[in-house]
Design a protein that fits this description.
Number of helices: 3
Oligomer: single chain
CATH topology: 60s Ribosomal Protein L30, Chain: A
CATH superfamily: BB2672
Number of domains: 1
CATH architecture: 2-Layer Sandwich
Order of helices and strands: EEHEHHEEEE
Protein name: Peptide synthase
CATH class: Alpha Beta
Shape: globular
Strand content: 25-35%
Pfam families: AA_synth
Number of strands: 7
Structural class: alpha+beta
C-alpha cells in the first residue's frame, strides 16, 4: 500500500458573533482542519484501495486533535462533519476512503459521541470548494446544530491530489430558533434523538 505524502495543511477558525441579530456574549467557534495529500490512485483504476484508510488514520487523528485544541478543547465541541475533495485525475471512491479515518478520529478525540459524522465528497478542479455538513455530536436530529462550513484552498486539489477536511463547532448556530429537538433534551440512545 502506498504511503502518505502531504503537500500542505491549514487550520481555520471562525468566531461568529451574530448573523444580523443581537451580538452573542460568547461567539460560536466553527473550525476546519484541512490536509492536501497526493492521491496515490490518481490516473488509473485500482481495484484494491481499502488499505489506504489505515494509512490515513494517523493524519485524521492529528487533524482532529489540533482542531479540537484550536476550538478550546475536546470538551467544548458540540458539532462535527467531514469532507473530501478529489482532484480531477481521481475518482469519487478515493474520497470515500476518508469516511472512517476522519470520522473515527473526531469521535476518538471528542470521546463518547453517538451520532454519525455527516460527510460530503466530490471531484473538483484546483481551487474548488466543498460544503461540509455539520450535525450535533450526539443526536443528528438536533436542528440548532444543522450547519455547514464551506472549505477549500486556492491551489488545491491539483489533479493528482485530495483535499481532506474535518470540521467542528462549539455550539448551535448563533441565532438558532427553528425549533425541534433541543440539545438539552437529547436522550442519546441511538445517535438520532
Amino acid at each position: 500500500m502506498p504511503g502518505l505524502e502531504t503537500r500542505k495543511r491549514a487550520l481555520i477558525v471562525e468566531e461568529i458573533y451574530h448573523e444580523g441579530g443581537p451580538v452573542a456574549d460568547t461567539p460560536l467557534l466553527r473550525g476546519a482542519a484541512l490536509a492536501v495529500i497526493t492521491n496515490p490512485f490518481a490516473g488509473r483504476f485500482e481495484p484494491d484501495i481499502q488499505g489506504f484508510m489505515d494509512v490515513l488514520r494517523p493524519l485524521g487523528l492529528d487533524m482532529a486533535q489540533k482542531l479540537a485544541v484550536a476550538l478550546g478543547g475536546a470538551d467544548q465541541i458540540e458539532g462535527y462533519g467531514k469532507a473530501s475533495l478529489v482532484g480531477s485525475a481521481g475518482e469519487l471512491e478515493h474520497g470515500a476512503l476518508w469516511h472512517a479515518p476522519g470520522g473515527y478520529a473526531m469521535r476518538d478525540v471528542i470521546g463518547g459521541t453517538k451520532a454519525i459524522v455527516p460527510s460530503a465528497k466530490k471531484v473538483g478542479g484546483t481551487g474548488a470548494r466543498i460544503d461540509v455538513p455539520i450535525t450535533h455530536i450526539n443526536a443528528s436530529y438536533v436542528r440548532s446544530h444543522f450547519d455547514s462550513m464551506e472549505v477549500g484552498l486556492n491551489d488545491a486539489p491539483r489533479a493528482g491530489e485530495m483535499l481532506l477536511a474535518l470540521v467542528m463547532t462549539t455550539g448551535p448556530r448563533v441565532h438558532s430558533r427553528s425549533g425541534g429537538l433541543e440539545a438539552a433534551d437529547i436522550k442519546g440512545e441511538d445517535g438520532l434523538r
